[in-house]
Amino acid sequence: MNDHTSTGWRPIATAPTNGRRLMLWHVGREEAVFGKWRGEEDHDITHWRLPPSGPSDDDPGE
Q1: How confident is the model at residue 62 (pLDDT cuts 50, 70, 90)?
Q2: 44: closest CA among 59, 57, 28?
Q3: Residue 7: how many CB atoms within 10 A of its CB?
Q4: 25 and 11 Cβ atoms separated by less than 8 Å
Q5: What are phi and psi of 12, to 5 degrees?
Q6: Average pLDDT score over residue span 51-58
Q7: Could you report the per-residue pLDDT of 6-29, keeping only the tens digit for each?
Q8: N or C: which terminal CB in the chain sees fewer CB atoms within 10 Å?
Q9: How many secondary structure helices (H) and strands (E) does the chain include?
Q10: For residue 17, what are the CA distances in angstroms to 2, 33, 58, 60?
Q11: How far apart, in whole angstroms, are the C-alpha atoms of residue 24 and residue 39?
Q12: 45-49 β-sheet, strand order
């Protein structure tokens, strides 16, 4: 994860701790995982971003 700012990734120190579901970057697995950040000392989680939003109500789908 080199240029995390252009993709919406932010340092984990800035993550909300209010129970909101987030995408968390797990450096050990080198992949994003979904979860809630509570400010724990987890050195494998280094960045966060908001999860992608689902389709809007007016999206006809397939």
Answers
A1: low
A2: 28
A3: 10
A4: no
A5: -60, -25
A6: 75
A7: 678 999 999 999 999 999 999 999
A8: C
A9: 0, 4
A10: 25, 16, 32, 35
A11: 12
A12: 10-11, 45-49, 21-26, 31-36
